[in-house]
Specification:
By secondary structure, the chain is mainly alpha-helical. Helices cover about 60% and strands about 5% of the residues. The protein has a 3-stranded antiparallel beta sheet with strand order 2-1-3. A hairpin with a 2-residue loop joins strand 1 and strand 2. Helix 8 packs across helix 9. The longest helix has about 30 residues. The radius of gyration is 22 Å and the shape is globular.
Length: about 230
């Protein structure tokens, strides 16, 4: 079987990871080098190439921390995402309009520092920047659409029912924000002027906690197998 066909078979689930890893070209007897399996999430494969493309995708997230991300952190991120996507498939999908995706990407290219050297405000410059990160415009578009779907799902599942009380806002202002300003010898803004921002911070903290607990439960309930580099899939 040609190497390309083997890859398609592996991704389509028509061949086990172990069979694919040991496959040979029938006409030459040469071993076929295929994408390594990094993890298996409820029967779905996460490949080493998924980790590599996830790392490259960081170029389109200019507001994330610049600290290096380890392979283990990337893999954990992809496992969590796969678990969420599997849950999303169990309920009706809320489509993300093309216009919304395009609007986000148009805004995004204005905020990526590296884009300045590419003139990303032009179609040719943006296409060149995207290509240099190893993606086509359509690949990036669909990846961003999925990102928007994931965020929408998390918002609908966890955020809608959360209520932040005035007492919680007061407590955060007094015990967290004021000490932070005092440490910098700066004057803190009046609570009333930043109450909305404090509420948003507390909402996000609550969502993060609920999401982490939910993902931990999904990992415990489902089958997640993480393979060490060089280890063959079962």
């Amino acid at each position: 079987m040609p190497a390309l066909a083997l890859v398609f078979a592996l991704l389509a689930g028509r061949m086990s990871p172990a069979q694919a890893a040991n496959a040979k070209e029938p006409d030459t007897g040469a071993e076929v080098t295929l994408d390594r399996v990094a993890a298996i999430v409820n029967g779905e494969l996460i490949l080493e190439s998924d980790l590599e493309s996830e790392e490259r995708l960081a170029a389109f997230q200019p507001f994330t921390r610049a600290t290096p991300v380890t392979r283990e952190q990337l893999l954990d991120r992809l496992i969590d995402r796969r678990l969420i996507v599997q849950q999303m498939a169990l309920q009706p999908e809320t489509p993300i309009a093309d216009a919304d995706v395009d609007a986000e990407l148009a805004s995004l290219c204005k905020n990526i520092p590296a884009c300045a050297a590419y003139a990303c405000e032009t179609d040719a410059g943006w296409q060149k920047f995207v290509a240099d990160q190893g993606f086509t415009l359509e690949e990036l578009r669909e990846r961003w659409r999925m990102r928007m779907r994931l965020l929408q799902f998390v918002e609908e599942r966890f955020r809608m029912g959360i209520r932040i009380s005035q007492a919680e806002i007061d407590d955060y202002y007094k015990t967290t924000l004021l000490p932070a300003y005092q440490k910098e010898s700066a004057t803190a803004p009046a609570e009333a002027t930043i109450a909305d921002r404090i509420q948003e911070i507390l909402l996000q903290q609550r969502v993060d906690t609920l999401l982490d607990d939910w993902l931990t439960a999904l990992r415990a309930q489902g089958g997640v197998t993480i393979l060490k580099p060089g280890e063959e899939a079962p």
